[in-house]
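Good morning C.,

I know you're traveling, so I'll keep this short. The sequence:
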Amino acid sequence: MINNCHNNAAQHYEPVKKQTYHTRLKQLLKEELNIYGKPKVLDLLAEVIERLNEENYPKNEYMRLGQVRVVVPSLRDRPSFGQKIEDTELVTVTLDILTSEDMERYARGGAHVKIQQERLARIANQAKAQGGLLSQPMAGHLLGVRQDCVSKYAVGYRKRTGKVIPLRGVVHDIGRSTTHKEWIINLYQRGYTEAEIVWITGHTIQSIGKYLKRYKQMEVLIEEIGEIPIIDKAARLLNISKWSAREYLILYRRYHNVVKQKGKFFIRLPTVYEQHFCNQGRPVRISKVVDSVMRELQ
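The tokens, ready to paste straight into the viewer:
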């Protein structure tokens, strides 16, 4: 007997896409009202019930399928030197761990890494919008990956889109990676304005100002005491975490003698397409401009 079945990967995701509240409502209506053989009627009734639920129960009071509630540090509570998580203000946020868009991307054969990057960006932005911040370890638990994978997803997302995922280490400036700080400070030392750095990196003007303020504070501290302090001393005097002190000391050693001179890039705000000197006047996407800037800074 000839097997005429086609091995279509998309078909494996169809059952998953139907594992929804809408389907459960249709099943209940079938059993309670004995409505069989009328799928359009069932769909209509299920949609009406779903709409009534949304109208009568605010979204922050009930959970949808694919959502999860987690406790995370508050956006307002910026950690100070030696602050423990037990002393940090915490908030509860509701995140969309799995959505119909995710399932559609998998069904279309989308790249796993790209989908994971989008999921990470979504839950991080949702947490921030609700007054909380996801750490890399928490994001890793939610996505089912290790912390180093989360870091790679964040870096890959920034390179691909030109935007920064608002994880706690980035927003509160306590991350163990100097990537985003180095990017900003290197651009600043090469003569780019804060507005231009905002456009290139995707950080807010407040975030840019915060990083530059900390870096300048480290410069002033070293100038005042006449030497490069140890990490503990710098953290205590500037009232920042040891990891932040370590990062800014590294950046000071690396960039304090850099001459402020722009690279060969023409930045014209606020257009998405910019002219790069080596592209002979042809427009290039922002992600390509970002990659070119990063290569120039290396």
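Safe travels,
E.
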